Amino acid sequence: MSEAQPIATNARLPAVWPRLRPFATLAALLVLLAFNLAVTPNFVSWQTLNVNMTQVATIVIVSVGMTLVIATGGIDLSVGSLMAISGALAPLIFLSPFGLAHPALGVALALVVPVAAAAAFGFFNGWFITRFGVQPIVGTLVLFIAGRGIAQVMTNGNLQVFKNPSFQVIGLGRVFGVPVQVIIMLILVAAAAWMLRRTLLGRQILAVGGNERAARLSGVPVAVIKRWVYTISGFCAGIAGLVVVSINSSSDANLVGLGMELDAIAAVAVGGTPFAGGQAMVVGTLLGALIIQLLRYTLLANGVPDSAALIVKGAVIALAVWSQQRGR
Amino acid sequence: MACSIPLQQSDRSMPGLSTLLSMRDIDKHFQGARALNKASLEVGAGEIMALVGQNGAGKSTLIKVLTGAHRKDAGTIVFDDKEVAFASPQAAQAGGISTIYQEINLIPYRSVAENICLGRQPRRYGLIDWQRTNNEARRLLGRFAIDLDVRQPLAEFSTAVQQMVAIARAISFNAKLVIMDEPTSSLDENEVKVLFDVMRQLRSEGVSVIFITHRLDELFAVCDRVTVMRDGRTITTQPMSKVDKLQLVSAMLGRDREDVRVQATGFRRSPMASTGGEVLYTDALMVGYRVKSAHVEVQSGQIAGLAGLLGSGRTEVARAIFGADPASGGEIRVLGKPVHPSDPAQAIKLGIGFCTEDRKVEGIVPDMSVRENLTLALLPHLTRFGVVNEDRQREIVDRFIKRLAIKTTGPEQKIKDLSGGNQQKVLLARWLCTNPKLLILDEPTRGIDVGAKMEIQSLINELADQGLAVLMISSELEEIVEGADRVFVLSDGRTVAELSRGSIDAAAIMHAMAHDTPVTGAVNPVP
């Protein structure tokens, strides 16, 4: 009646490999942990966990948005600069005469407005890319450059130093001993993973990345979807910016989020999300960020200088990409 | 039979011409499939030879064997009195054979002169001698009476001029043979005229041309002889003066006029079946350069066939109705209401579905599961507050897998791991589950094995019997003859014939395909 071998596929070679891939990242993390348990002094301590988790939280928060962008086949270079904008706006708000006169409202606005602004800039990225058909790497380069400029102009290039315990909950607070930014990080990872699996937006993001032309011919509003992912990426960067300035008790528009786009892209790569789009491994991204963080910590704790750690970081990314190619 | 070509006795005589190229008994296999089967091609010196055939007839493979892009399995190639086997297109170019492809292989932001002389610019003291480069370019273009500023970037000029530049570059290698693979597909009528003048100029200088095109009118305007290929074989070679379009069409399709096999498809259209009201109506539809005035009509419960040779504008008409590449003019009515879909999403809301001819590139999302692919178009209706109702989704997917007998290990299997026929069924199901009023099918059985083909055809048949309106594009005459209740034939972007039940037969369709349109490319002074 019909085909002789209906389900014939690439069953020849490592059919198990694609299924094992998500676990490969986890396995790498476990190997690193085991190594540390054996070698690094004082590794098993509440403090080690805290240091690592608080440091990795901002990277993960940004990487969640980056994962969604990359799942559509795009990339967002502007995240570091959007962090700087958000980080510069917050103290401007709660240190303003209005913010000082109404402390509670000031802090609330300092939490909401910067994140909304970063999301709006993210929307601009998406609009620019879809409206003019610009390559995402070029489209987001605009705000990568201009965004940090905007942050510096807003603060006249000044370092803003502050002490505002109720605002700084986002970077220094704890709930049952767990740092608030770690909780935010976990919520965002869970929300993104759920969104990708269960919602229309999530499925359409993957369809756009998997085959944009087929998605369009099936009625998927491709431009709208792309604007959404860049907006979400900006939103995540905005939150990360707030976390960073509240940890530092200061905001320096030159430094907040510097190089973050590359850390986030690295985390996504190590986490196993293919850059061609169509798939998104949000939990993989979390594990990827943890691997990079733990690797750096391991090397530092064992007396390897930061410069050498960079080389190892590069090697790990190369290894991750290589293993992805194998998985094809 | 008056109009069939004597297939065996090709006219090999070329009065007054010596043979420049002679390819004989060329065989070529690709992974078991036979692409060329003792194909042959002869071109005389200073001759314009047309090479025509349907998709997959073997034209491109034959050319690629000649230029060294593919290696032949058997056969001989004699070029310029020497037996040759070029190792690469570069070697062929050095040997005197230049090829100009459909997509122009030039560098848009470099100057015209650089593009012409690229790779062998005159040098002075190790630097490029711009003056000589520019003069050389001007001289080459001057042969075609084309005068332009060769220092301007190529991208500033029209496609036709870019085409000329590609040709100038090709003959600057002292080519004896220039191969043009569908050079006219993106040109307007005036540009085509200019191109033809260039071809005639080449001929008068003793350069031979192999001209591949799908537009039959062009052959008669400019070619000396024509070679027809089908199924990897050379069917015939004839002087243009001895053939007419109908003969060419039937040689390309491989049919004598009455010779279409009975019941070769899964279609069973009942001649008495009743049809409902009008679902789709278009008139004077224009799309881009290609579609000038297309008229189609489909009623519910009816399969309307859209026939025409490659390049006649069939796909463009379908895409315009679906809003994928919006129409530039004319009227479209869906269920009696005038519409102007500018996006597929709008057409889907109107109750239209569209299966593309290129399943891989525009149909499937390869890494997604059968379930995701099947419900891609329906998904917005399966959600509440943006969350997908997975129970309903699974229920619908199971139902369609069963109903269409889709062979899969389960709804979670990736669609790229299915066979072509089953992928096509999933794509049909993608639309059927949206409960459309009109389904547009562009080559619904292309690249699908025989068994699945019959299944899909009888499925389409059944859907129409249940009241669906179907607009079906097909290059296979059987599919149109047996499957369509009415047929619209496009030629050069115009609906040239409408056949209704009873008058649909292969002869009438081929006659319409070979319809005479004003011949472009009469000798004209170059602007």
List the helices and strands and how they pair.
The complex is a heterodimer of chains A (328) and B (527).
Chain A: H1 17-39, H2 46-71, H3 79-94, H4 97-101, H5 103-132, H6 136-154, E1 160-161, H7 169-172, E2 174-175, E3 178-179, H8 180-198, H9 200-210, H10 212-217, H11 222-248, E4 250-251, H12 260-271, H13 282-301, H14 306-327
Antiparallel strand pairs in A: 1-4, 2-3
Helix pairs in contact in A: 1-13, 1-14, 2-8, 2-11, 2-12, 2-13, 3-5, 3-6, 3-11, 5-6, 5-11, 8-9, 9-11, 12-13, 12-14, 13-14
Chain B: E1 19-30, E2 33-44, E3 48-52, H1 59-67, E4 74-79, E5 82-83, H2 89-94, E6 97-100, H3 112-117, E7 123-124, E8 127-128, H4 130-142, H5 159-172, E9 177-181, H6 189-204, E10 208-212, H7 216-222, E11 225-230, E12 233-239, H8 245-253, E13 278-287, E14 291-299, E15 303-307, H9 314-321, E16 329-334, E17 337-338, H10 344-349, E18 352-355, H11 359-363, H12 370-374, E19 383-384, E20 387-388, H13 390-403, H14 420-432, E21 438-442, H15 450-465, E22 469-473, H16 477-483, E23 486-491, E24 494-500, H17 506-513
Parallel strand pairs in B: 3-10, 3-11, 6-9, 9-10, 15-22, 15-23, 18-21, 21-22
Antiparallel strand pairs in B: 1-2, 1-4, 4-5, 7-8, 11-12, 13-14, 13-16, 16-17, 19-20, 23-24
Helix pairs in contact in B: 5-6
Report what the structure shows.
The complex is a heterodimer of chains A (328) and B (527). Chain A is mainly alpha-helical. Chain A has one domain (50-320): ABC transporter involved in vitamin B12 uptake, BtuC (Orthogonal Bundle), CATH 1.10.3470. Chain A has 14 helices and four strands. Chain A has helices at residues 17-39, 46-71, 79-94, 97-101, 103-132, 136-154, 169-172, 180-198, 200-210, 212-217, 222-248, 260-271, 282-301, 306-327, and strands at 160-161, 174-175, 178-179, 250-251. A two-stranded antiparallel sheet of chain A has the order 1-4. In chain A, a hairpin with a 2-residue loop joins β2 (174-175) and β3 (178-179). In chain A, α2 (46-71) runs parallel beside α8. Residues 1-14 of chain A have low confidence and may be disordered. By secondary structure, chain B is an alpha/beta fold. Chain B has three domains: 26-253, P-loop containing nucleotide triphosphate hydrolases (Rossmann fold, 3-Layer(aba) Sandwich); 276-347 and 438-443 and 466-515, P-loop containing nucleotide triphosphate hydrolases (Rossmann fold); 352-435, Rossmann fold (3-Layer(aba) Sandwich). Helix content of chain B is 31%, strand content 25%. In chain B, strands 6-9-10-3-11-12 form a six-stranded mixed sheet, sandwiched between helices. Chain B has a six-stranded mixed sheet with strand order 18-21-22-15-23-24, with helices on both faces. Chain B has a four-stranded antiparallel sheet with strand order 2-1-4-5, with helices on one face. The longest helix of chain B is centred in the middle third of the chain and has 16 residues, at 189-204. Chain B is globular, with a radius of gyration of 25 Å. Mean pLDDT of chain B is 85; it is low at 1-13 and 517-527. Chains A and B meet through α9 and α10 of A and α10, α11, β20, α14 and α15 of B.
